[in-house]
Target: Xaa-Pro peptidase family protein
Amino acid sequence: MLREESDSAELTGPTVFKDERKQAYLNPEGVDRPLISPLPATTLDRARRYRLECLRTKMREWDCGALLLYDPVNIRYAFDSSNMSIWTMHNASRYALILADGPAILFEFEGAEHVNDGLPGIDEIRSAKSWIFFTAGNLMEPRLKAWAEEVADLIKSNGGNKRVAVDKLEPAGAFELRERGFMLLDGQELAERARSIKSADEIELMRWTIRVCEAGMARMYEAHEPGRTEREIWAELHFENAPSGGEWLETKLLTAGPRTNPWYQECSDYVVKRGEMISFDTDMIGPYGYCADLSRSWTAGHVAMNAKQKQLYAAARDQIEHNLAILKPDMTFEEFNALSWRIPEQYQPYRYTLALHGTGMADEWPGILLHPDFDPEFSGLIEEGMVLNVESLIAEAGSESIKLETQALITARGAERLDTFPWEEI
Model:
C-alpha cells in the first residue's frame, strides 16, 4: 500500500490503495449470505436469566411493588421479547409488568401473543389494553380506566406495595395510577442502572453484534467509490445487519466532504467525490438486540489523506487513545473528566458533546460530557462490567470532520476494546 503526501482532493494513480486489513472483516460466506452466529443457545439463556434478575434486584433495592415497562428496549432486556419495536416506540400498544412478589407478565399486541413462545422469563401473556388515541379515539377514557384497573388489581393481588416504577407512560396513564394511590418512580433510571453492568454472556452476544457491524463496515469500505451517494454507502450496513438477524440503525449519520461539518447531518443524495472524507456513526442495533456503536472516517476512493485530513485524524486518534488509557473501575465521573484529553481551542466550536457513554441494547447511561461541558455536580462511578463508548469528533473552521468511536468493556485491568476494525494509517 503506497502513501504519498498531497493536498489535492483528486488523487489517482499510485496513491490509490485498498486496505487489506479491512477486507479481512468481509463476510466470508459472500455478499448474498448472512453471517450465522456460532454462539450456543445456552449463552442466550443465561443472559436472559441474568438480565431479568438484574431488574428484580434493582426493584428490591428501590422497594418497588412493581415495574411497568413500555420502552421496547427495556422489554427486550427483561424478556428477550421483540415485536414491532420501532412501531411500539411511538405507539404504546404493548407493555410488561414485573411484580416484586409475583409473576412477570407481558401484555402483547392483540393477535401477536404467539411471537413470545419459548421465552423463559415470561410467566404469563395477556392481550394488551391499548388506550392511545390512535386506536381508542372517543373510547380512550373507558379503555384507560380498564387498563388502570387491571394493572392495579394485579399489583394488589400479588401483595405489591404502592411504589411502582414506570419507564415511559402517557400523562393520562400516570394520572389514573396515581388516582388509585400508587407512587410512581422513575423506571427508566431503574432499568438503565440494571442494564449498565453486563454479564460475561452479554459480552459474548455483544461481540457477535460487533462482528456483524464490522462486516457491514467492510462492505461500506469496499463500496464507497466516488460517484455513489451517501445513502448508497450507508445502505451497505443495513444489507449486512438485516440478513444476519439485526434489527435497525438508530441514526443515519454518514456524510462526506463539506457535509461532515457541522456534524449531525444525515445521509443524503450527495454524490461522494474522490479524496473527500467519509465520516459515519453506525448506531446499529444488531443480532440479539445489542448495539454496535462504532465510528470511522476514511477518504473516498481509497486514496491517501491530504495534510489537513491527517492533522485532524491524528488529533481524533489522540483523544480516543488517551481516554481509553485512563479508564479504570471505581473511577468517579469527575476523576475521569479531570484526567481526560483536552480538546484544542480551534476544535472546540465543532466538538462532540460526549466524551463517553454507556452501551448495551442501545446507547445508555452514563453519558459523560466532554470537559468544556462537564458539570462537576454530575456524579457516578465507572464500574467493572460496564461497556463504555469512547467518542471523538474533530474539526475546525472550514474543514471536514473526523468522527471516531470505539466500544470498550471495563475490566479489573482497565478498558478492553471490543471492536477491532482498523483505524486509518497516516
